[in-house]
Amino acid sequence: MDILTERVELIGITRYVYKTMGRAISDYGMLEDKDRVLVAVSGGLDSLSLLKLFIMRKARIPIDFEIVACFVDTNFIEVDKDILMNYFNLNGIEYVTKEMSIVKDEINCFWCSWNRRKALFEAARENKCNKLALGHNLDDINETTLMNMFFNGEITTMPPKVELFDGALTVIRPLCYIEKEKIEEFSKQFDFPDTQYKCPYGQDSQRQAVKEIIEKLHEKHPFVKKNIFCSLKRIRKDYLV
Questions:
Q1: Count of domains in the chain?
Q2: Is residue 7 part of a domain?
Q3: Which of 24, 93, 149, 177 has the smallest set of CB atoms within 10 Å of its CB?
Q4: 107 occurs within a structural domain
Q5: What pLDDT digit, counting tens, does each position of 207-225 carry?
Q6: Does some domain include residue 4?
Q7: What φ, ψ does residue 132 adopt, rounded to 5°?
């Protein structure tokens, strides 16, 4: 049975992740009837899990929507793209690829992310997709929030849902309520391809420093991660400069 027709049993971690993603989709109105969703798939576990979860939703919910996987092929991130393309083909998943080449002297995490988003925006437009789904999880969003505060002196983050280009494209992050460790546990329940994905800039020193701070606090105060995320919805403007 291929991935598009398989009806996955919802138990344990599979149920938790599926239901939690569904709650985020409902809370932010991320998915509507007749949507055509471009799902960014890098080959890492977060993006493969996101793709799987969308396919699971297609089999279970009464909303008619389409999925297109998109792989952005770079000249510096290690990934076995042949294995990934084979996975798409074997399971009948519609997909597209975009080329992204950056001069190595210019590469850093921000510059890579900016160019990757640009490639994904182009792919969404070319394939008539009105939604772009990204695999950022709760930890990614919290780390980005604190990095912007600590190192850029501003309060900004990666919002769960944001409309761009006068509403022509909506970026969604359906994994925004889920911790990375939960997604990794979820991924072990499925036969995802081993793409050998490895980003040389994945261990950015600033992000790693923030990650360690959050994890140290989380050990004694399990509510910390949720509170960081929720704080951006509870801004008390009267007490800001």
A1: 1
A2: no
A3: 149
A4: yes
A5: 899 999 999 999 999 999 9
A6: no
A7: -125, 115
How many Cβ atoms from other residues are within 10 Å of residue 21's Cβ? 24
Edge-to-edge order in the sheet of strand 131-133? 95-100, 66-74, 36-40, 131-133, 169-172, 161-164
pTM, two decimals, is 0.92
Q: Which of 12-21, 68-77, 103-112 shows the lowest per-residue confidence on average (mean pLDDT)?
A: 103-112
- Beta pairing class for 161-164 and 95-100: unpaired
Give the residue numbers spanning the domain of 232: 12-239
Say if 166 falls within a structural domain: yes
Report the interhelical angle of 138-152 vs 180-187 (nearest 10°).
150
8 Å CB contact between 139 and 211: yes
Mean pLDDT over 130-153 rounds to 96
Which CATH number fits the domain that encloses residue 49? 3.40.50.620
